[in-house]
Amino acid sequence: MERESMEFDVVIVGAGPSGLATACRLMQIAQDTEQELTVCVVEKGSEVGAHILSGAVFEPKVLDELFSDWRDKDAPLKTTVTHDEIYLLNSDKNSRLMPNAFVPKTMHNEGNFIISVGNLCRWLAEQAEGLGVEIFPGFAASETLYHEDGSVKGILIGDMGVGENGEPKDSYMPGMELHAKYTVFSEGCRGHLGKELIQKFDLDNGKTPQHYGIGFKEIWTIPADKHQAGKVVHTGGWPLTEGASGGGFLYHADDNQVVVGLIIDLNYQNPHLSPFDEFQRYKTHPVIAKELEGGERVTYGARAIAKGGLNSLPKMSFPGGLLVGCDAGTLNFSKIKGTHTAMKSGMIAAETIAEALMAGVEGGKDLDSYQTKFEQSWLYQELYSSRNFGPALHKFGTLLGGAFNYIDQNWFGGKFPITLRDEIPDYAQMAEKSAYKVIDYPKPDGKLTFDKLSSVYLSNTYHEEDQPCHLKLTDVNIPIAVNLEKYDEPAQRYCPAGVYEVVEDAGEKTFVINGQNCIHCKTCDIKDPSQNITWVTPEGGGGPNYPNM
């Protein structure tokens, strides 16, 4: 099929923090040097911010670099962190408040802000458009386009109005090709085009496998007399036991709202574990429950987090393009923060591309000067000093790993003279079902704890039902013949949105995919022990519509 096309200097895939920072910095350089530059940002969400979910405590130094006058531009940074509390939850009832002196310094948040990253992205999009960037929300990049020499040519916007049977409907609209001298991929964690590019160009050669967590988040409105704007709580320990690790958080934001969440490392071993139900249990601990008492849950969401750090960071340049932000894995796990690092990676990308274009370098080249600029930045120094944080927790557990990280961060400044590595992919760590007992999770009470479907409802998730399923099985027989037999088909539990079911009828078991429930977290693509599920982008505009996440 011959398709219409549009030409740009730079196409950016994804209007998250890294993509928008790339766009803004590119246009700032163009204005400063009086150069003409055409930049386009494509966003699969129905609007900018619709698919953005993060804790989030934000470190503002990157915004000081990008917009030094952000305070005068009504940026959505309103709630300054007032104090930190870090608890070790010893059981479902008991806890220990950790003295600040024994907390890794990366966990302190003086000078940071509690924010909605979705709202930050909406603000960044306004700044980008004011600088001349074209932003197209509701259009999903479905394929990477290549020149005959194998370099990236641009992207294809997915067709709209295709039925489940693959045939065009009355509403059919063919996708358009967007061509660029350079394409920046900033799709977020486990972006499906980024995943393909890493494989095609062997960008992760010699790197530790990327590691992931699944992060849950709810926003609650609580009584005004209980609200303490700026309070930050982090926890470790319960309920994550029996081969699972991670940590929880609760932040007092503005407008009498608190955000509560749990991050579960996706290297967990117990196939009977349900991350969603672990999060519901988490809220019943007295340390958390007392903060939510008398409140009302407003919204819910979940998404995967790339947390392998520097050891897992792929080569970020390839012929015709760059990977930035969580598409590459720039999150600083020792701080549990990825927004400022994602933005900085995008700014370095913009400076690299602008330098090449202004020097007359042809499009389609491998801009390996990105690596030099990256290694000369504070971003590299942050990731280097945090390189042992995740592997230490995975190898030694919460207590001993935490002690190692305290020594590494507080005594050695992240320069401990060894580098720990975690070489086993997350999916490969799942044990067979016989190795663990089935977990009997309590039924939701409708006050603190809830079921999956009512939670998905609060995420405002919508997909056109009559469209091809965007959750692809390499072998349709594996879920029942292999995963059910060996692991009791863990997709029924690791999915936070009830997408996957095993249905039995007249003794016949069938694997059912409810793709319309998908909140685009990518956990299935990561954790399936048979690596049989591939997440690809559905029709543009589908998925969650997070209002304030």
| Biggest sheet architecture | 8 strands, mixed
Overall mean pLDDT? 95
- Count of helical stretches: 14
Radius of gyration (CA) equals 23 Å
Number of strands: 24
Low-pLDDT stretches are: none
Give the helix level as a range of percent.
Answer: 25-40%
Write the layout of secondary structure elements.
Layout: E1 5-13, H1 17-32, E2 39-43, E3 57-58, H2 61-66, E4 79-80, E5 83-89, E6 95-97, E7 113-114, H3 117-130, E8 134-137, E9 141-146, E10 152-157, E11 160-162, E12 168-173, E13 177-185, H4 192-200, E14 212-221, E15 231-237, E16 246-252, E17 257-265, H5 275-282, H6 286-292, E18 296-306, E19 317-318, E20 321-323, H7 339-358, H8 369-375, H9 378-385, H10 389-411, H11 452-458, E21 471-473, H12 478-487, H13 491-494, E22 500-505, E23 508-513, H14 523-527, E24 533-535
Helix pairs in contact: 1-3, 1-7, 7-8
Can you walk through the features of this model?
The structure is a single chain. The protein contains 14 helices and 24 strands. The radius of gyration is 23 Å and the shape is globular. It has helices spanning 17-32, 61-66, 117-130, 192-200, 275-282, 286-292, 339-358, 369-375, 378-385, 389-411, 452-458, 478-487, 491-494, 523-527, and strands at residues 5-13, 39-43, 57-58, 79-80, 83-89, 95-97, 113-114, 134-137, 141-146, 152-157, 160-162, 168-173, 177-185, 212-221, 231-237, 246-252, 257-265, 296-306, 317-318, 321-323, 471-473, 500-505, 508-513, 533-535. The strands form 6 sheets. Strands 1, 2, 8, 9, 10, 13, 19 and 20 form an 8-stranded mixed sheet that branches. Strands 6-5-15-16-17-14-18 form a 7-stranded mixed sheet. The longest helix is centred in the C-terminal third of the chain and has 23 residues, at 389-411. With 549 residues, the chain is α+β, with helices and mostly antiparallel strands. Helices cover 26% and strands 24% of the residues. Helix 1 packs parallel to helix 3, helix 1 (17-32) packs parallel to helix 7 (339-358) and helix 7 packs across helix 8 (369-375).
